[in-house]
Amino acid sequence: MTPETFEGTNVGELLITAIQRGQDRTAFICGDRHISYREFGEQLSQLTQVLTQRGLRHGDTIAALSVNRPEAFFVSAAGYLLGLRVLWMNPIASADDHLYQVNDADVKLLAVDPASFGDRAETLREKADRPLQIMGLGPLGAHVDLLAAMSQQTPQKLRSLGRSDDECVLVYTGGTTGKPKGVLHTHRVQVAMILMQMADFDWPQESRFLAMTPITHASGALMMPVLLRSGTVIMHPGFEVKHFCHLVQTHRVTCTFMVPTMIYVLLDSPVRETHDLSSLETIMYGAAPMSPARLTEGISELGNIFMQLYGQSEVPMAMTVLHKHEHDPVHRPHLLSSCGTPVVGMQLRLLDEEGQEVAPGDVGEIAVRGPLVMAQYINKPEENARTFRYGWLYTGDLARADDDGYLYIVDRSKDMVITGGFNVYPREIEDVLSAHPAVAAATVVGVPHEKWGEAVHAVVVWRAGQAVDWSELSELVRNKKGAIHVPKAFHEMARIPTTGLGKVDKKLIRQQLISGT
Q1: pLDDT at residue 291, rounded to an integer
Q2: Poorest-confidence range of 71-75, 186-190, 218-222, 416-420?
Q3: How many CB atoms lie within 10 A of CB 91?
Q4: Burial zone of 63 (CB within 10 Å; 0-12 exposed, 13-18 middle, 19+ buried)
Q5: Could you give phi then psi for residue 488, rounded to 5 degrees?
Q6: For residue 296, what pLDDT is reported?
Q7: Is the domain covering 9-24+31-184 a CATH 3.40.50.980 domain?
Q8: Going by CATH, does the domain composed of 239-413 fall within 3.40.50.720?
Q9: What CATH number is given for 416-515 in this structure?
Q10: How many whole angstroms separate alpha carbon 457 and alpha carbon 443?
Q11: Residue of higher predicted confidence among 421 and 470
């Protein structure tokens, strides 16, 4: 035996398996285009040839800056096959963040969607610290048209040059608390993620997956299991409720990923009543907490089709799962506040700052170890030291566990409010407020206060045509959680600000409340 005997598989080999299995089945739908697995394989071969001709070497970093479209995924797929490091560049990020990522990750080649990012690509090329090749996913001024260059190549048999411990994926955190951090994953982590998803998620028998959130994040991380099941990925650039309902009805979508704010919009829209959404078997949701009251409403309106994922860039898709059968408003309503139990194969503990497990029922920081843990934050030694402690990855999320092992996230450690010396967890107040029939959504933050250190402030979005006096909400919180949890101030907003990934932007909300804007 040699060391190679025990070499694990890589993402490129999984892609080849998916293509061989799918053959003439439809792999991708985007607008009017239908792409079969066979066509996907041919285009992937042509793309790898073009990238090789551009002088890329093993381990170099490439990226695609594009809205959701198959070619953007093809660029990543080609990178996996060639042993390149693939930066998942969020199209919703700012121009400054894109420039920071290009420089921090040392991107060698950037494939660009001309219609959406042609101007930004030129700015990135001019301002980048090092030479940056630009190729267009279509005509892009003086730059090489990648699609045209592909058409000049003869498809060949696919082979993967990656190895299991090669650097595979680089994804940047949201950056709401400073500069984004580049989270690095090897092929070994990505393969484990894919296999664990296939083993532990509630996939429909026939997977027709609708990707409307950016494929550089959760939707993209869910695509490989769909392809390995010979399913179809339907792509659309961005969420709009009319398009969502139309695509579900037209393509008989069976599964999708949504953030809670998207689900709220769907539930509140009359458009839903004019479309047939009965094909939906699984809505995976995550990225932010979901109100148990609105989740109950969703189950009543759409059926028992919800599955919750709790993960983060550092431990992708996911650390825990709350399956469809565990969404039981009648017999186990308390579980609607839970993020579930650890995904098969992950070790998870609630630890204190000294690395000790907290007592049953107490709040501790979620810490994990196992095959999904990132390799590191690139170029961030201090962040790595802070995150990796006592043999665990500390997530920054605070939670309790019940006697059955279900986890209940109370908040991010940075979002906990210390008021008058007491620890207050905004998530618990948000759940109380969101249960009021007049409230469509609510979020809670701490605002600096001379007397209390921090004061609890609540932001509320009313349901259409409804509103109540703030005193009614105060009394509701007082009765459910006690006086210390009652917000010192309430604020009405038309919508709660979110980041590009659908997470509530509490940093922005705090700034707005402090400045009075």
Answers
A1: 86
A2: 416-420
A3: 21
A4: buried
A5: -75, -20
A6: 96
A7: yes
A8: no
A9: 3.30.300.30
A10: 9
A11: 470
